[in-house]
């Protein structure tokens, strides 16, 4: 028969730690201004971890006492580990699990490291971001590093907007810059990098660029030299890059600058830049073809925005996927089943065996003959009509640096609806029929693809939902309710 008295033993050792009778070890722990001395028993420490066993063999006793010193460890964290060594109980309290893991590795406690790493992996709320991100050597804790890098990429501003971002080590910053899933726009990444560079330059740099001397730019360039190759300047808008270039011409390498300028202003550019994907974003966009940055550009065209295109966080529309050819099929009947009478839509087409991405905007809707009065009936049977509008357009975003926008030039021929065809713009300016397409300029300003007939690899259609309208309606409704209440109160009085 076996009896388990481990709880009693744990309690007794806990009492021994609180009142260390017969101690023969003094442990001096310090971190910054925090210092504390602990008293312990060498036989317990050596039996629980090899770190103390090795250290004590090389340390001489003085009056029967060994003195062990350890810097850069929080006394609060060490107290947690010392209690674990004596009792087997890991009492976390409000301490950072990452700090405990780092200290546990230093003191040779692999079970603690393993247990807490598992807990952090399974419990996002157990992290203390953004501080935890800079609290450990990423190369020594690959599991923690992977999870924390993934988390920061999904919630970048929690780190980038904090004071801890300026303390991120260069190698970790470069890992972030390499990530496709870092959910920031490229111009934002550049602006954060400049702040990091100014903070981490061993030279006093004024925040006011107008006061900088050539030497200041040289110092900043030296600090950022290893980071700049990972900035995707070619994914900025041309306007943003020109502004960046104007401010930091002496920081961006000359050869790289020449390539970027060539990319932005040569529509035939076939640079490897084209193969680098756009970064992910927090904007909810379900597409196999375009990214949120493309949606921001298209939104700017819809609103006829004349200056810089919208940034992703400024997109005023919801792009709601209502049709995908690889999911619903290329059957024309399926297109009409899913897309007719849905209001404004965007069509996005990926051309087979090419990098071509083209599309069009229909502000009216497909085959909704009852809603619009301004129509020109070129075909009178089976409700085949051509709609009139001045707001439709077709486009190409194959070269995102120099996209092609082609607005309607013949308003009476803007949108063609035919039950036997897919989405059609103008008179063959952009026609979709099953898995083939035609593009021959007639009703729109420009041709958007060099070939007249092409095969379609995939096409998607998005319903465009005005987000600003819903918020305006909400304000209008609230105002109406308030006015009604005021009038009602006045009548009663």
What do you see in this structure?
There is one protein chain. The protein has 493 residues and is of the alpha+beta class. Among the domains are: 1-91, Potassium Channel Kv1.1, Chain A (2-Layer Sandwich); 292-467, no CATH class. The protein has 17 helices and 15 strands. It has helices at residues 6-18, 42-48, 50-57, 75-87, 97-106, 110-122, 142-154, 156-160, 170-178, 186-199, 214-224, 238-248, 254-265, 292-302, 325-328, 332-339, 467-492, and strands at 25-31, 34-40, 66-71, 317-324, 345-351, 357-362, 375-376, 385-387, 393-396, 404-407, 415-417, 424-425, 430-433, 436-438, 453-466. The strands form 2 sheets. Strands 4, 5, 6, 7, 8, 9, 10, 11, 12, 13, 14 and 15 form a 12-stranded antiparallel β-sheet that branches. The protein has a 3-stranded mixed β-sheet with strand order 2-1-3. A hairpin with a 4-residue loop joins strand 12 (424-425) and strand 13. The chain is elongated, with a radius of gyration of 32 Å.
Number of beta strands: 15
Categorize the overall geometry: elongated
* Average residue-wise pLDDT: 88
pLDDT < 50 runs, ≥5 residues: 368-382, 471-477, 479-491
N-C termini distance: 87 Å
What is the count of DSSP helices, taking H or I runs of 4+ residues? 17
InterPro entries: BACK (IPR011705), BTB/POZ_dom (IPR000210), SKP1/BTB/POZ_sf (IPR011333), TLDc_dom (IPR006571)
Protein name: Serine-enriched protein
Keywords: Membrane, Transmembrane, Transmembrane helix
Give a nutshell description of this structure:
The protein is 38% helix and 16% strand.
Protein topology:
Elements: H1 6-18, E1 25-31, E2 34-40, H2 42-48, H3 50-57, E3 66-71, H4 75-87, H5 97-106, H6 110-122, H7 142-154, H8 156-160, H9 170-178, H10 186-199, H11 214-224, H12 238-248, H13 254-265, H14 292-302, E4 317-324, H15 325-328, H16 332-339, E5 345-351, E6 357-362, E7 375-376, E8 385-387, E9 393-396, E10 404-407, E11 415-417, E12 424-425, E13 430-433, E14 436-438, E15 453-466, H17 467-492
Parallel strand pairs: 1-3
Antiparallel strand pairs: 1-2, 4-15, 5-6, 5-15, 6-9, 7-8, 8-11, 9-10, 11-12, 12-13, 13-14, 14-15
InterPro entries: BACK, BTB/POZ_dom, SKP1/BTB/POZ_sf, TLDc_dom
Domain TLDc: 288-465
Transmembrane segments: 474-492
């Amino acid at each position: 028969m076996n009896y388990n008295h481990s709880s009693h033993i744990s309690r007794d050792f806990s009492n021994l730690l609180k009142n260390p009778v017969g101690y023969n070890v003094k442990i001096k722990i310090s971190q910054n201004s925090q210092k504390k001395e602990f008293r312990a028993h060498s036989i317990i420490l050596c039996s629980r971890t090899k770190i103390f066993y090795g250290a004590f063999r090389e340390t001489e006793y003085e009056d029967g006492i060994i003195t062990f010193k350890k810097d850069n460890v929080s006394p609060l964290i060490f107290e947690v580990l010392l209690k674990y060594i004596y009792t087997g109980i890991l009492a976390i309290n409000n301490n950072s699990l990452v700090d405990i893991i780092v200290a546990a590795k230093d003191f040779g406690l692999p079970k603690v490291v393993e247990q807490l790493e598992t807990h952090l992996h399974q419990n996002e709320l157990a992290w203390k971001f953004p501080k935890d991100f800079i609290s450990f050597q990423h190369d020594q804790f690959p599991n923690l590093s992977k999870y924390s890098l993934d988390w920061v990429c999904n919630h970048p501003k929690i780190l980038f907007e904090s004071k801890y971002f300026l303390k991120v080590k260069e190698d970790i910053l470069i890992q972030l810059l390499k990530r496709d899933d870092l959910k920031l726009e490229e111009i934002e990444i550049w602006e954060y990098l400049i702040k990091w560079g100014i903070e981490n330059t061993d030279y006093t740099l004024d925040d006011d660029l107008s006061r900088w001397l050539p030497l200041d730019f040289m110092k900043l360039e030296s600090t950022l030299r290893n980071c700049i190759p990972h900035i995707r300047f070619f994914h900025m808008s041309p306007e943003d890059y020109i502004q960046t270039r104007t401010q930091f011409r002496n920081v961006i390498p000359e050869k790289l600058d020449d390539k970027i300028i060539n990319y932005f202003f040569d529509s035939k550019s076939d640079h490897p830049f084209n193969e680098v994907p756009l970064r992910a974003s927090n904007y909810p966009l379900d597409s196999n073809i375009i990214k949120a940055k493309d949606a921001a550009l298209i939104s700017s065209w819809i609103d006829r925005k004349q200056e810089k295109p919208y940034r992703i966080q400024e997109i005023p529309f919801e792009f709601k996927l209502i049709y995908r050819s690889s999911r619903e099929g290329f059957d024309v009947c399926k297109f009409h089943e899913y897309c007719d009478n849905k209001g404004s839509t965007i069509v996005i087409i990926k051309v087979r065996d090419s990098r071509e991405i083209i599309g069009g905007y229909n502000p009216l809707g497909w085959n909704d003959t009852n809603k619009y009065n301004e129509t020109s009936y070129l075909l009178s049977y089976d409700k085949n009509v051509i709609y009139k509008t001045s707001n439709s357009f077709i486009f190409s975003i194959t070269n995102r640096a120099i996209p092609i926008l082609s607005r309607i030039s013949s308003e009476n021929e803007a949108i063609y609806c035919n039950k036997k065809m897919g989405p059609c713009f103008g008179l063959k300016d952009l026609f979709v029929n099953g898995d083939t397409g035609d593009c021959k300029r007639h009703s729109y300003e420009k041709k958007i693809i060099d070939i007249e007939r092409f095969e379609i690899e995939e096409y998607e259609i998005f319903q465009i939902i005005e987000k600003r309208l819903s918020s305006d309606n909400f304000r209008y409704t609230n105002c109406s309710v308030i006015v009604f209440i005021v009038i009602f109160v006045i009548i009663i009085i």
